[in-house]
Each structure stands twice: as structure tokens, then as C-alpha cells.
Write a structure and sequence with these properties.
heterodimer, A: about 230 residues, five-stranded mixed sheet, B: mainly alpha, globular
């Protein structure tokens, strides 16, 4: 850490020495008379054009508007409610539950093995026993809502693939997804005199939703493995 | 008559100021080079955070132009030091001048340079944002809009920050002109003071206090007063030291 700091300081000092030692002789050779004005003028013009173009960049290009603090608190409540209701077997009533993918799988066996995990992929598995749908296992991938700096990124969450092979539910991890959010702001003085703004603590609402694989299994099928039964 | 003299002094200050805008062109060249380096260094973001679960990773990067702001403050500090060196000082004598008019035109020049460089920080920061949008995949941009009041106060604030550093640089440069021994004394006092404060008390307060004195001030009026007072003292000390140089 100390060495990294020293190297960064030396690096910046090196840049400064180079820039200031070379600036005067270089400008005397290359920027004589009006040419210097042209160079500085062109630089300002390029910056200006770039700045104007930058305002054409959609603010929040995901197309989803950032939430207000109150809205985010409400979403947090919904996520908690999602957790409580899912374990009670009332997931359909949960406002915070986002359904990503569903599967209908025919299954004639009397016992289903669900593995604890697949590699480093782990997901909560809830099982609801149902009297209807005999011979069919219904699976659904739900998540709570995820926000990164108040931007809803829930739709970008990837779903796993499911299949039943020899009495075992295979959960195939999804391809990893990476979401980048670039938070743009103005330099510090532009926020210093604005009420309630704190530049470096301004990581607004980041909310992580829980992931659930919800299985509706005929009541005569025994489920083994690392699962939890709703309502129990 | 006194009146006539005062008018001509101001005229000379104005003329010198205009002349300095042209003759200190080299300073703006170093500003361009430093800003281009600042733009490149800013592409990684001024700060970042992130997290992830299972197969879903997210990164949050900040692009606020603070690296550019820091570079420009250093530029102002060093440029002001360079202004006090012989090569630059003797430029003034192409005019009928005295030390006071020279100092006043330097103040005006550094104030103007602070304002111009402040604007270039804003523009360069937007260029960074444009580059990020054009060259990074799958990136969402979020930004807070700036209010009119925020923009005006911010522009005043950024100009004054740069001017404050320029004033410190001018004082440092003027002291070095009195005696080269200040090349040794100033870094020893500043860096030594910081280490002394940190080592001896175990609870460094000097740097945080200086930063919070300016950085935590949320009233623009008080901030202006603080900057004008501190930079005024620096200029006063610099002018006094140059008088000493004259006697010498």
C-alpha cells in the first residue's frame, strides 16, 4: 500500500517535471506567435464539441429512471415482504418478487434429488407441495429487485437452466453477467455549496435482491437435498 | 496631480494583463498536456465500487472530474511559482512599470487563468464521459443534473480553489526569489509539519483541518471570504518579500 502510494506520487511528480520542463522550450519552438493561440483555441474547441456531444448521451441509458429515496425504501420493504411471503408459500402475492423464468417438467418418479450446489453457484430452493398437476414439476426462478445506485438492474439478472436427469434436478449455472454503471458528476466544488450533497458518500440505494428457485412438486414426490419446504 | 497617476497605473496594469495573456502562452500549453494526461487517467474513474452475487457482477464507477481538478490545482501552483522566476519577471520591463503594477497584473492574470482552466476542467470531464459511453460496452450512465445555482456557485468555487493554489505558489515562488534557501525550507516545513503532526500526536489533524476549513464550507459567501482572506495574505506576503528584493 505504502509502495503503491510512493510509486503513484513519483509517477505524478515525473509527469509534472516533464510537462513543466518541456512546456516552455517546446512552446518556443512549436508554438511561436499565433500558432500558440491556434493550438489553445483548437483544444478548447475540441473540448467544447466533445462536451456538447456528451449531452446527447442518454442519462441513464438503461432507459429506466433512477428512483427517489422514498421509492427505494418502498422497494426495500417489498424485498423483505418477498422473503416472508415466499417462505409462507404465498409468493404470488409478493410485490417484490420478479419472475424471470419458468419451467414445466414432466416427472413420473416418486423421489427427486436436488443437489446442494453446482460449483460456486448457489441458489435458495423452496419447495411447495401441490395436490394438482400430477406428473409435472413446475419450477420458477424469482428474484427480489436489484438496484445499483438507484438504477433498477433486476432485468439483467441471469437465470440458470434446469433439467431432470435420472431423478436428479440439475441446475446449470447461467453465463456470468456483468453490469456497469457509470455515475457521472461534476467536480467537487459544484456540489460543495448544494445542500445535502456529499460527494463520496453518495452511493445511493444499492439493493440486493434474494434469488429463489421455487418448485411446485406433486405431493406424492419426495424431495431430498438442500431445500426448504414452504409453510413448514 | 495624484488622480492622473492613479489612472495611468490602472492602465498599465490592464496593458500588462493583456500582454501576460499572450506572453504566458507556455502555461496554457502545459495545461493542455496535463489535462490530456488527466483525461487518460480519469478513464478508469475517480473511484469505483462493486459487488456481485453468484453469476451477476456489477461495478459502479464515478466520473466526476476530480482528477482533472487536482491536476489543474497542481498546474496553478507550479505555474504561479514559475511566474515569479527571473525569465518571466523581466518580461514586465518591456513596459513602464513598477513592482506593484506587476503584482496586480499577475493577480489579474492568475484569476483569469483560474477561471479559464476551471472551464476547461468542466469541458474535459464531459469529454471523459463521452469517451466512456462510446468505448465501454453495456454501461449505464447515471448523473445528477446541475441546478443553475449549483452551476454558478460551482464555477465561483472552482475558480477560487485554483486561484488559492496559485496564490500559494506565487508566495512560495516569491520567497524563493529572496533566497534559494527557501527551496529547502518550504518543503521541509510543509512536509515535515504534516509528518510531525501525524507522528507526534498519533492523530493527524493539520491536513484534515486545512481541508475541512475550505472543503467543508457550504456557504459560498464564507468560502469566498476564506479564500480571499488566505490568498490576500499570501499576496501581501509575496509583495512584501518582493519589496525586500528591491532593497537588495
Amino acid at each position: 500500500m505504502l509502495w503503491a502510494s510512493i510509486i503513484s506520487i513519483l509517477f505524478i511528480a515525473g509527469i509534472l517535471v516533464l510537462v513543466f520542463f518541456l512546456a516552455k522550450p517546446a512552446s518556443k519552438i512549436f508554438l511561436k506567435g499565433r500558432r500558440g493561440n491556434w493550438v489553445f483555441g483548437s483544444y478548447i474547441a475540441i473540448l467544447f464539441i466533445g462536451a456538447v456531444l456528451s449531452y446527447l448521451v442518454p442519462n441513464n441509458s438503461s432507459g429506466i429512471a433512477p428512483l427517489s429515496e422514498e421509492e427505494l425504501k418502498a422497494e426495500e420493504m417489498n424485498n423483505r415482504q418477498f422473503h416472508d411471503l415466499a417462505w409462507k408459500g404465498r409468493i404470488d402475492e409478493a410485490k417484490g418478487a420478479v419472475l424471470h423464468k419458468e419451467w414445466e417438467m414432466d416427472y413420473e418418479g416418486k423421489e427427486l434429488m436436488v443437489p446442494y450446489e453446482n460449483g460456486n453457484y448457489y441458489i435458495n430452493i423452496l419447495v411447495e407441495k401441490t395436490e394438482s398437476d400430477e406428473g409435472t414439476i413446475h419450477a420458477a426462478h424469482y428474484t427480489g429487485k436489484e438496484f445499483l445506485d438507484n438504477v433498477d438492474v433486476t432485468s439483467k439478472l441471469p437465470s440458470p437452466e434446469l433439467r431432470i436427469v435420472d431423478g436428479t434436478l440439475q441446475i446449470i449455472p447461467p453465463f456470468p453477467v456483468e453490469v456497469k454503471v457509470a455515475k457521472t458528476a461534476f467536480p467537487y466544488p459544484f456540489h460543495q455549496f448544494t445542500d445535502g450533497y456529499s460527494m463520496f458518500e453518495n452511493n445511493r440505494g444499492s439493493l440486493y435482491g434474494m434469488e429463489i428457485l421455487y418448485l411446485r412438486v406433486p405431493s406424492d414426490v419426495k424431495v431430498n437435498g438442500d431445500v426448504e419446504f414452504v409453510g413448514s | 496631480m495624484m488622480y492622473l497617476t492613479e489612472v495611468s497605473m490602472w492602465d498599465i496594469v490592464k496593458k500588462q494583463f493583456r500582454f501576460k495573456l499572450k506572453s504566458f502562452r507556455g502555461m496554457f500549453t502545459s495545461l493542455i498536456v496535463l489535462q490530456i494526461i488527466g483525461i487518460l487517467l480519469s478513464l478508469n474513474g475517480d473511484g469505483s465500487g462493486g459487488g456481485g452475487s453468484n453469476y451477476f457482477n456489477h461495478t459502479l464507477s464515478y466520473y466526476s472530474g476530480n482528477i482533472l481538478f487536482g491536476f489543474v490545482m497542481i498546474w496553478a501552483f507550479i505555474s504561479a511559482i514559475l511566474m515569479t522566476t527571473r525569465g518571466y519577471r523581466y518580461d514586465d520591463y518591456s513596459f513602464v512599470t513598477d513592482k506593484m503594477t506587476s503584482h496586480f497584473s499577475n493577480i489579474l492574470f492568475l484569476l483569469a487563468a483560474s477561471f479559464i482552466s476551471g472551464i476547461t476542467i468542466l469541458l474535459a470531464n464531459r469529454v471523459v464521459i463521452l469517451i466512456i459511453y462510446l468505448f465501454q460496452d453495456n454501461v449505464s450512465m447515471t448523473g445528477q443534473p446541475l441546478t443553475f445555482k449549483g452551476a454558478v456557485f460551482g464555477m465561483i468555487g472552482i475558480t477560487l480553489y485554483i486561484f488559492l493554489l496559485a496564490s500559494f505558489g506565487y508566495l512560495a515562488g516569491s520567497l524563493v526569489q529572496i533566497s534559494k534557501i527557501f527551496i529547502m525550507i518550504l518543503p521541509v516545513v510543509v512536509i515535515g509539519g504534516i509528518f510531525y503532526d501525524a507522528r507526534l500526536t498519533g492523530n493527524p489533524s493539520l491536513v484534515p483541518n486545512v481541508f475541512s476549513f475550505f472543503g467543508m464550507e457550504d456557504s459560498i459567501i464564507l468560502f469566498m471570504l476564506k479564500v480571499l482572506l488566505v490568498s490576500g495574505l499570501s499576496w501581501f506576503a509575496a509583495i512584501l518579500s518582493s519589496m525586500k528584493l528591491e532593497v537588495k
